[in-house]
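From the pipeline queue, job 12 of 40. The input is one protein chain; the requested action is below.

Action: predict structure.
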Amino acid sequence: MNSNVGRSCRFAIALLTVSLLWACSSSPAPQTDSPETSSPEPPPPSSLEPEPTTLSPTAQSPQARGKNAEAKHHLGSISRAQMAYNLEYGKFTQKLDELDLGIKAKHFTLAGLEANQTKAIFTAIPKEPGLNSYAGGVSQLPDASYGSILCESRQPSQAIAPPILEGNTWRCAPESQKVE
């Protein structure tokens, strides 16, 4: 078997494995209160500043929402492919073409910003005004599982700060918000 085909097959198997692990690791649906359990205490009032005003997704045109969905989809694919790449090679890659995804983004420029043994950070910057920018991050956790995040600029923007990894926890930069 040709070495490129063998490499592609191994990578496809690793990507499938990571996708299955990712799908199976989703948190279970919250349970309703039953007589055996009590309602959780409400969180204490926060002394933090309120969140900055964000542009509601419904405030954007349907075309802009559709184009933004392209970026979310592509960065989700990149995140899962980075996990598979890390599983196979023991590191992440900054070169998105090494992930063999064949993504052709129409409305966004995709880029790998940083990659090393423990994490990768990547972005989707719009090619036209009126769209949000996106940044994603993925890291390998001490238990060999993966942590990831997808952040969206709070307003249409041609730039976004990368997500921040603190310990084993990802968070979005202040001018962006986590995509759920």
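Job complete. The radius of gyration is 19 Å.
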